[in-house]
Specification:
The structure holds two protein chains of two kinds. Chain A has one domain. In chain A, 20% of the residues lie in helices and 24% in strands. Chain A has two helices and six strands; from the N terminus they run H-E-E-E-E-E-E-H. In chain A, the strands form two sheets. In chain A, strands 1-2-3-4 form a four-stranded antiparallel sheet, with helices on one face. A two-stranded antiparallel sheet of chain A has the order 5-6. In chain A, a hairpin with a 4-residue loop joins strand 1 and strand 2. The longest helix of chain A has 20 residues. Chain A is globular. Chain B is an alpha+beta fold. Chain B has one domain: Phosphatidylinositol 3-kinase Catalytic Subunit, Chain A, domain 1 (Ubiquitin-like (UB roll)). In chain B, a hairpin with a 7-residue loop joins strand 1 and strand 2. The radius of gyration of chain B is 15 Å and the shape is globular. Chain B starts with 12 loop residues before the first strand and ends in a 5-residue tail after the last strand. Classes of the chains: A alpha+beta, B alpha+beta.
């Protein structure tokens, strides 16, 4: 746990600088190795708020657990809390529904792996996350992961359900 | 001594500031206007320590615009003094 905390906190300086550039707010809860991020999705003149939670136990041996939650940071993986799938450039979206749960389907999310009830058996397990899916979105630090999720979120309109 | 006048000579290079999600500090790069976005992104990504992936560049507006890796910087309206940000262009699923 100490190792995961030290690594995460080393990466957080850059993540905070990223958040300041993107009007996102970050809260790091060191005791539970949890990162809470609030993202704004522009919809015309309005904005929609999304709440993203990352859990960093075991980081970087395994990737974090990323989930969209409700505004209390409680309910997890509900489609209604997840952005709709609409990434830029016609690429496949990382926001999917799997067995009724919203999943951020990218190699940097532990919940994308079959070992964690996610859709991917073909990525070889979460311990191989840094080399899994070489042609898919690649994000190897916390800032990179936030950037990747935010990239698709701001191009989506609305929610999975 | 005669005075040389340079008229109508357009600078063929642009200098931009590039931010990376993995660094608190940006870097400055000077590229030819006709270099492709993907090539510039790869150079910037390497400078920031990225290995592999599918580096691209996006604007810093709200919302950002992901530039087309296959187009020259000038065709994507990148101008001298602009600020850009590294972004991976790979898809999910």
């Amino acid at each position: 746990m100490e190792r995961a905390r030290a690594i995460a906190e080393l990466e957080l300086d850059a993540a905070r600088a990223w958040a300041a550039r993107h009007r996102a707010t970050l809260t790091w809860i060191a005791e539970t190795l949890e990162l809470r991020a609030t993202f704004m999705q522009p919809i015309g003149d309005l904005e929609e708020t999304f709440f993203l939670r990352g859990s960093f136990d075991g980081y970087r041996e395994v990737p974090p657990i990323w989930v969209f939650t409700d505004e209390t940071w409680g309910a997890m993986s509900r489609p209604v809390d997840s952005p709709q799938a609409a990434p830029p450039g016609g690429r496949s979206s990382m926001f999917i529904s799997h067995n009724g749960r919203a999943v951020i389907c990218a190699p940097f999310n532990r919940l994308a792996y079959a070992a964690k009830e996610g859709p991917h058996q073909d990525w070889g397990g979460p311990e191989l996350w840094l080399s899994a899916g070489p042609n898919l979105v690649h994000a190897a630090t916390i800032g990179d992961m936030l950037q990747a999720i935010h990239r698709d979120l701001v191009f989506a309109v609305g929610r999975l359900s | 001594m005669h005075e040389e006048k340079v008229v109508g000579v357009e600078r063929q290079e642009i200098t931009v500031t590039v931010f990376s999600p993995r660094s608190p500090e940006p870097m400055t790069f000077t590229w030819g206007k006709t270099i492709k976005v993907g090539e510039a992104a790869r150079e910037a990504a390497t400078a920031f320590g990225y290995q592999g992936g599918n580096p691209g560049l996006q604007t810093t507006g709200n919302p950002p615009r992901v530039l087309d890796n296959d187009k020259p910087l000038v065709a994507e309206h990148v101008r001298d003094g602009d600020e850009l940000e590294l972004v991976d262009t790979g898809g999910g699923v």
